[in-house]
Design a protein that fits this description.
497 residues, alpha/beta, Immunoglobulin-like, 2 domains, 14 helices, binds alpha-D-glucopyranose
Length: 497
């Protein structure tokens, strides 16, 4: 369905556009399929831009910078909270942070190994901090010397190396960029609160060098650095903005949006740009998964322990089974999972995070068809329900989640992910709207048919006595062709919501 007047025009002019195709020079980032759809005349639609992302479902987030070297400790004191905020938390003077950068020499950084890990985990895209709130550019920037090439003994540009490794391995590359907060550039915004009662944080600035004008910072650092990132590193899949604070008004956000669209029309803009309506998908809160299914495009950014940037004291690693559940839970509610690693100051990815990701990757090798390109559950009761008695801290009915099973979908298939293997040798499902042609376990290479019987309340599937996979076993239900087609068209219209 056309999204706007512009898209209607595109349809009307489509014949003309294809005649002219030879005469039009394709714009950067417009691939062949989009070009044939007239994207080189009008730019891709939101749907064209985002289709790969909807397929991908699982991405790697990387938080890495000079803060990784501090690993949560400053002048002998361990700071609580997320590691990449240590400059703010410990009120580190700019000169000291520059001195730290001058010792940042991550000689063990290996772009190939990092991208290989993303691939082993079954992740399809990778988003790395090109500049976090500390203002330090993790790429060679001509507009600010405070960058990894000019201000460290390392002198290499890890973003260049990652771009090359991603291109070789077919992983899409995206850049996190802190557009509003910058604790190093004069005039950069600094978060206020919720520390109002703590005198240490009452004044946002802690170094006179931070004083300055936001627009000067925006014009001389943000705009030119985004230009550099979108000009020097090949096709960029996503620009992941963060913490817009009050300063990212409609005008400033629109300038950034226009710049991204002009330089790389296929690049997605994540949900934290600010200034309303400019982004391609919503970002859920950190580590937050909605209780119920959600329409539209959205992503949950999440950690493997309790920090984004490396902290030597944080060993609170989640179990592979928990991460796998979260991945399935998110996909079954219609979202993407962006899962973080925090390499250390030498460029080494902590072994526990490598182990967890590889375990998830092994599960995906067998069950990936139920995740990639899969849509949300047609049921809903499996997520849980709101309590009639208990209330949450806001006085609203408390949600009581369930986690026995989840369901993902494709036009002619339902996938039931079983996390708690039923002891009765059968799986009872609520009524399905389709006739089931065949049921089998994805872990069974011979696809032996499982018995399917209608019941008074739905359908029951006969299961072997023990689960083939200790984390989650997936039953694929193939549906009848005609119904599958009807469902597929419903799914299509739902996708354009
Ligand atoms: C928060 C934090 C930030 C982190 C981000 C990840 O907004 O400010 O440090 O990068 O979440 O989603």
């Amino acid at each position: 369905m056309p999204e706007s007047r512009r898209d209607c025009l595109k349809l009307i002019l489509f014949g003309g556009a294809s005649l002219m195709a030879g005469a039009v020079t394709a714009r950067a980032g417009v691939d062949e399929k989009d070009r044939l759809l007239g994207a080189d005349l009008f730019g891709p639609t939101h749907e064209q831009r985002i289709s790969w992302w909807r397929e991908a479902r699982f991405g790697m987030f990387i938080h890495w910078g000079p803060y990784s070297l501090l690993a949560g400790e400053w002048k002998g004191k361990l700071y609580d909270g997320i590691g990449e905020w240590i400059m703010y938390k410990a009120r580190i003077p700019l000169a000291d942070y520059e001195h730290l950068a001058a010792h940042f020499n991550p000689v063990k950084f290996d772009a190939e190994a990092w991208v290989q890990l993303a691939q082993d985990a079954g992740m399809k895209y990778l988003i790395i901090t090109s500049k976090h709130h500390d203002g330090f550019a993790m790429f060679g920037s001509k507009v600010d010397q405070f960058n990894i090439v000019d201000a460290t003994p390392f002198k290499r540009d890890p973003m260049k190396e990652l771009a090359a490794a991603c291109a070789r391995r077919n992983i899409r590359l995206g850049f996190y960029y802190s557009q509003a907060q910058d604790w190093h550039a004069p005039g950069g915004a600094i978060w206020k609160g919720p520390h109002e009662n703590d005198p240490v944080y009452a004044v946002p600035q802690w170094d006179p060098k931070q004083n300055g004008d936001f627009d000067t910072y925006f014009n001389t650092k943000v705009i030119p650095q985004i230009r550099e990132l979108l000009s020097n590193y090949g096709p960029i899949a996503v620009i992941w903005f963060d913490t817009p604070l009050g300063v990212m008004n409609v005008e400033r956000a629109t300038r950034l949006e226009k710049l991204v669209r002009e330089l790389q029309p296929n690049c997605l803009i994540s949900g934290r740009l600010g200034g309303k309506f400019q982004s391609d998908y919503d970002s859920e809160g950190d580590n937050s998964i909605p209780n119920l299914s959600r329409a539209g495009a959205w992503e949950t950014p999440a950690t493997l322990n309790d920090t984004w940037g490396f902290k030597k004291s944080d060993h609170n690693w989640k179990e592979p089974a928990d991460i796998t559940f979260k991945l399935v839970d998110i996909v079954s509610k219609g979202g993407n999972y962006l899962l973080n690693i925090g390499p250390d100051g030498e460029g080494v990815i902590p072994q526990p995070s490598q182990d967890i990701l590889r375990a998830v990757g092994r599960w995906l090798k067998v069950n990936g068809e139920a995740i990639y390109g899969a849509g949300r559950s047609p049921f809903g009761q499996e997520f849980g329900s709101f309590s009639k008695i208990k209330v949450d801290k806001d006085g609203k009915p408390q949600f009581e989640p369930r986690n026995e099973w989840r369901c993902t979908t494709k036009p002619d298939r339902l996938y039931v992910h079983i996390f708690q293997w039923p002891t009765l040798g059968r799986l009872d499902l609520p009524a399905v709207k389709f006739n089931i042609a065949k049921a089998y376990l994805l872990a069974d290479p011979s696809q032996t048919a499982l018995g399917v019987k209608p019941t008074a309340t739905g359908v029951t599937i006969a299961l072997p006595s023990s689960a083939p996979d200790p984390i989650a076993s997936v039953v694929c239900l193939e549906t009848m062709k005609t119904e599958a087609m009807r469902y597929s068209s419903r799914l299509q219209s739902e996708r354009s919501l």
